[in-house]
Design a protein that fits this description.
elongated; 5 helices; alpha+beta; 169 residues
Length: 169
C-alpha cells in the first residue's frame, strides 16, 4: 500500500524544528487535499503535546526528503533560523545540542558495559589474574573517558562529530 503524504517543516519558537508527516491518503479512511487550513489544524492538534519552549509556532512549510539531513541520529538538534531560501539549507544542526546528544547517548551505551566489566574485574581479582585485571581497568577507563574526548567539543559539523558509537574510531 502506498501512503501519500507531505512532509511539513514546523519552525518552533526556540528555533528547533518538528517534521510532521501530513497524510493525504492512507489508502483507507484518510483523504485530504493538504490545504493550509488542514495543515494548520493538524499542527494545532499536535502542538498540545509539545514542550512549552517550542511554542508558539513561528511558521511552517512543505519540504521534500532532500531537505532533510541524511541521518536522523542528531534529529533533536535540528534547527531552522528562518532559512527559507528556495535552494537554501532548510535544516541545520545546533552543534552544542548535538554534542550533548552524543555525550548522553555514549553514557547510555557505556553503562551496561561498565557493569559487565565490573563483574569481570572482580572475578579476575579473585583469581589473582593481575594481567587480566589491568586490561579490564584500562577498558573501564577508556569508557569513562569517552565523553571527554576532545574531538566532541572540537566538532564543527555533524560529520566531524561522527556516528554515536562506543567503539574506538
Amino acid at each position: 500500500m502506498n501512503i501519500k503524504q507531505k512532509k511539513v517543516l514546523i519552525r518552533c519558537a526556540d528555533d528547533s524544528v518538528i517534521i510532521l508527516s501530513f497524510v493525504l491518503d492512507d489508502g483507507h479512511f484518510v483523504k485530504r487535499l493538504g490545504t493550509k487550513e488542514e495543515i494548520d489544524l493538524e499542527i494545532s492538534r499536535h502542538s498540545t503535546a509539545w514542550e512549552p519552549s517550542r511554542l508558539p509556532i513561528k511558521g511552517w512549510e512543505i519540504i521534500t526528503d532532500e531537505d532533510l539531513p541524511s541521518t536522523r541520529e542528531y534529529r533533536n538538534a535540528w534547527v531552522n533560523h528562518g532559512l527559507d531560501k528556495p535552494k537554501g539549507k532548510k535544516i541545520e544542526h545546533d552543534m552544542p545540542k548535538a554534542r550533548e546528544i552524543k555525550k548522553n547517548a555514549l553514557r547510555l551505551l557505556r553503562f551496561p558495559l561498565l557493569q559487565q566489566l565490573d563483574a569481570e574485574y572482580m572475578m579476575s581479582l579473585e583469581q589473582g589474574n593481575s594481567e587480566e585485571s589491568n586490561k579490564i581497568a584500562k577498558e573501564k577507563q577508556r569508557l569513562r573517558d569517552i565523553t571527554s574526548d576532545p574531538r566532541i567539543e572540537a566538532a564543527k559539523t555533524i560529520e566531524d562529530l561522527g556516528p554515536i558509537s562506543i567503539n574506538p574510531q
